[in-house]
Amino acid sequence: MRIFSGLGGKLLLAFSLMALLTLSASLLGWVGLSHLRQLEQGVQQTLADQELARTLSRLSGEIQSASRLLATATSEQEREHQGRLLTLQGQQLQQVLAQLGRGQGSTSLDQLSQSIIGNLGQQGWLVGERLTLMAQGEAQRARLVAAAGQIAELARSQMENAETVMVAGLGSLYQPQGAQAARTLDRLLEQDLDWLEQMTELRHRTLMQQQRIEEMWRSERQEQLQTLLQEGQRELAILQLRAGAVTDPARRQAVEQALTVLAQSDKLVQLRSDWLGKGEALQVLASANEALMSSLNQQVGELVSRARDSLGQSQQALSQRLRLLEQALMGIGLLTLLLLMLLMWRMVYGRIVWPLQRAVAGMSRLARGELAPLEPIASVGRDELAELGRALQVFRDNAVELGRYQRELESRVEERTGQLSHANERLNEEVEKQRQARAEAEQANRAKSVFLATMSHEIRTPMNGILGGLTLLEDTHLSDTQQRYLAAIEHSGESLLEILNDILDYSKIEAGHVEARREPFPLFQLVDELSALFRPKAASKGVTLALEYAPGLAPVVEGDLGKLRQVLANLLGNAVKFTARGQITLTVASLVCHGPCAEPCIRFVVRDTGPGIPADEQEAVFEAFRQRQRDVGHQGGTGLGLAISRKLVAAMGGELILASEPGKGCEFSFSLPLQRSSAQLPAEAQPLHLGQSRDILLVEDNEINRLVAHGMLTRLGHRVTLAEDGRSALALVTEHPFELALLDINLPDMDGMTLREDLAAISEEMHERPLPAIAISAQMYPEDICHCLAAGFVDFVGKPVRLAVLANAIERLFRQEGASIEPPVQLSAAPSTNQPEWANPVLDADLPLLGMARIRQLVALFESQGRVLVDTLIQGDGSQQRQLAHKLKGSALALGLTGFASHCAVIEAGGGEPAAIGSQFDEAVAALQRWLAANRDAQP
Predict the structure, then answer these.
(1) What local confidence, expressed as pLDDT, does residue 737 receive?
(2) Taking the model in full, what pTM does it have?
(3) CB-CB contact of 803 with 711 (8 Å)
(4) pLDDT over 90 percentage in the chain
(5) Measured between alpha carbons, how far is residue 874 from residues 224, 877, 880 in Å?
(6) What one-character-per-residue DSSP string does 19-88 give?
(7) What angle do CA 348, 353, 357 make, to 5 degrees?
(8) What's the average model confidence in pLDDT over 472-484?
(9) In this structure, are residues 938 and 471 in contact, taking their beta carbons and an 8 Å threshold?
(10) How large is the average pLDDT for residues 753-772?
């Protein structure tokens, strides 16, 4: 047959024969297992019956035990508990008997169980009746005992009365004599003594009757009950006779009532008799239950015995069948083994395994690349193995051909690999160059950040001296030449301050230190002050500056006042700078906000009629350090104003937009979510209160800054001791106790953190008092301030030092020590609407605080020391020039000479022309002199 010619057919035939033999063995096994299962069911049933018999025996014992406990129950709760227990046990008994009687056809077990359960119910009823009788008997016994006790108590009181009468009679025998004494003695013997004996007998018999009542209730035999009843009735008759001897009518009546109660003792005897009868009935029921239980157990035992005998017979029959089945299975097993061996040898090994081994050997040789001729797998046949042999031969021929192609391909791949290796080397070189370039760019960016941070500190330090020095200089008397110098200083200082502020603001923005604050401020007052500030400069060029303020805006809003002022001042300043004619308009109006604002946003627009900016150059004006020379000519500056303004507006939640066309002017606009505020702002600046005079140690390495701070502290009424470095400060604290120390953070010989700790330790050790310290630094980033406060400083004052800030810091520290001792000094005034060319805001602010004499002293010190530093700087080398430029910069900023300070900063950074510093210094001195001349009438 063709179906068996293939490998699958051969395997099918072999396995079919094996399956047939296996099926035959399975059928025989199934027959044997069926009989075995029947025997197992019988065994299981017999075991179950034995287990039920044991359960029945246990239940019988439990029922008998519970029955005895029920019979001896002394309370209704105990009877109910035992009754519920017997009910559950009876149900279990019925269930067990039902299982035992299933299939037996016997009703005797059911009849026995019904009889037992009926007896148990009758026993429960009898126990309930006994408990009722017990309760009634207890109540009757209590009444009888109480009545007997009442008679005994009355008899006792009569005994006491009799004893009292006798004592009184005996006492009266001493007075009379003769016949009277004899009569008294006869009455005592015949009446009083007899009364005492009768009352004593009454009490004794009453107590005996009380004991007899207790014996009646405890009696366990009917004969004893009748005897006690008869004795009690006889004793009751005697008690009734003795009760007549009670003389007191009320007590006699009480005794008679109690005797009436005692006469009911026959009821107690009847209750006890009934109770004993119920007990005898319970005993009869218990005996009946025991007999029924014994009969029940006997019948169950007979059922179990019959089941065990039947199981034995089944086992014998099954053993014979299993022996026959075992012999049959053994024969089938031997036949199966012989057939299986034949099939394995002829079919599996001869036709499958050996050809497969030759096929595997051939494939292994081909896999190893051995292409020698293959041995034939199957000499004859048309099965799958023969086809596999022919396929392997074809595969071997193809492998020979593929080997030739492979050798050709390897040569080509080797050539291409060389080309790719060369290209990869060039790519790695380019990647390395890019990595180095990126590293250089990152290093340059870090160097820029470090430079800007250092510049921030170094600029603010000398600016403190400039601003404070100008404040002190106002109190001095200046000549006209000095006034011109002061005016020149003022003009240069304004330019320098503007450039330095732009640089510092941009460094803060790049370092990520710009955060929008929210504080209430009057919006109209802000824009009105800015308009008034720039209006004179615009008018000097023939340009009109107008303010358009929508009337419906909130008077007080919440936002970042400082950043908004800076942005608007920059936009207005650019408009005034680049507008030669026409008009400048500042518009403030409401704008519908599409964000989560509760009120409309506020839109700010600065529009001018200047030359305008082409569309392709509009984005470039917002880039840092980018300046565009408009038609009116280059106006100077750093090129940071618009870049800073855009970032500040973004920080406040808006966007700075430019709209312009050449010849039609520019329009800068932005909108901010400034919410209405209910805060009430003061109409005027708050006055500064001068506190109690303190001993203060001032540590500052810059001489001009020392002079400025000394003047401010003196103006505040404090006693000041100066130190130029940490070593001098330590020596001064050792010699003299101070109440406060003002420390510059960056000193030439040690840092302010370490100096504060040393000063505090010396003050505690030498003077036994703490020494609080306030930090003074030009590094005013939030993390710098937090670092100082965490290091132990009580407060922080930034440079340039302002008098109000310094006074507030000291006042906060000593606030608890009392009120101020000097009249208030006004901190600020309204901004001037018309600033002249020689104006110096720093010196103007310090003039009322430090006085003109102190400011003139500062200017003179700057002129004398600055000239020497300038000459040395021009003749010095690179490092010396940068050091001297740093000192000149700090002094210039303290006096408000921002222009001259910016030139010094450029030289300090390694740029600029040091030779030109001389003329710039002369211009700065001339600006200071012009300011002094303009303020020569000020109070010294």
Answers:
(1) 92
(2) 0.34
(3) no
(4) 9
(5) 148, 8, 10
(6) HHHHHHHHHHHHHHHHHHHHHHHHHHHHHHHHHHHHHHHHHHHHHHHHHHHHHT--SHHHHHHHHHHHHH
(7) 175
(8) 61
(9) no
(10) 90
